[in-house]
Amino acid sequence: MLDISMTTWVVTIVALVAVFVVDFVLVDANSHAFTAKEATRWVIFYVLAALAFAVFLRIHYPDTSASAEFLAGWVTEYSLSVDNLFVFIVLMSSFAVPNEQKHRVLLVGVALAILLRGVLIAVGAAAIQRFEATFFLFAAFLLYTALSVWRSGEEEPDADGNSLVRLMERRFSFTREYHGSQFAIRKEGKRLYTPMVLVMFAVGTTDLMFALDSIPAIFGLTREPYLVFMANAFALMGLRQLYFLLNGVLDRIIFLSKGLALILGFIAIKLFLEALGGTTEIHVPHISIQQSLMFIAATLGVTVMSSLWVLKKHPERAQQSQLAEVLEDSLDVRGEALKHFEIDES
């Protein structure tokens, strides 16, 4: 375990908040439709920031594998978070979010997601520290998830968000119209919330369902809560901009679900072996973090190259990708969530 002081935690949280504030000021001070060019610059920025953090870990913790653990965790979380984007597409369409407000929605939604994941990480770390056998549960869950991801595309995203979102719909009054970036308005002396509140909450809380898959996976790569949190934070912060780079990128990686399933299955095996070695006298092979990182990188590389090779031979396969199916579904549910609101200003 790394010797992470409370000061380090506080500085880290303050730095993350500062990044979100700067992002908000620079990009969202004047609402506008986020362009692919802007998204590319921010993706590069967050990737370089994650790599810089890995270098920082290498310098300050030279006698540990902290840097490799962070990189393996970050790459895994970033890859797994792609599924979040597919759900975000459906949510954005269902709530008919204006183009100039989409980045603001993702910014606040992701900030909420990081907060909720922080709570989940704390719970997971406490469980692992108290019960080594927790890894057996994580391994079984990841193996189940790997099989589900391999068969992904059979389940359709929930266009209305989740049960918490529907509870908010019943408890508060909402308009069906957006009012710029405002969260609430007053009409005839009554306070009405705009769909901005609901869709931001939907993005943040829906991500938590994906965290139930990805957080056990990263605990299979590192037991250090600080590294788990930072890998999640960097992955989610870079996730927003990937949303605006979907077309022309993810629709070409047609074997993405297969690659992610293999990675989850590999980590499930690693977790099982560690749990078996930690709770019994059985001698089991040890999979190092360097070997894990190499497997993850190689799997993603093969996934991308094989996808591009197949598309070169059969371009029509792009229309059968998971992204193509999600985009088609999003058109079918355009504005559906807003129909639930009783108050209509139009």
**Which class do the helix and strand fractions yield?**
mainly alpha
Please report the total strand number as a whole number.
Answer: 2
Low-confidence stretches: none
For this entry, what is the oligomeric state of its chains? single chain
For the record, the count of structural domains works out to 1
Radius of gyration, in Å, reads 21 Å
Order of helices and strands: HHHHHHHEEHHHHH
Question: Number of helix segments?
Answer: 12
How much is the average pLDDT? 81
* Helix proportion: 55-70%
The end-to-end span amounts to 58 Å
Strand content: under 5%
Shape: globular
Largest sheet: 2 strands, antiparallel
Order of strands, main sheet, comes to 1-2
Quickly describe the structure.
With 346 residues, the protein is an all-alpha fold.
Key words describing this protein structure:
12 helices, mainly alpha, 2% strand, two-stranded antiparallel ribbon
Describe this structure in words.
It is a single chain. The protein has one domain. Helices cover 68% and strands 2% of the residues. It has a two-stranded antiparallel sheet. The longest helix is centred in the middle third of the chain and has 29 residues. 38% of the residues are buried. The mean pLDDT is 81.
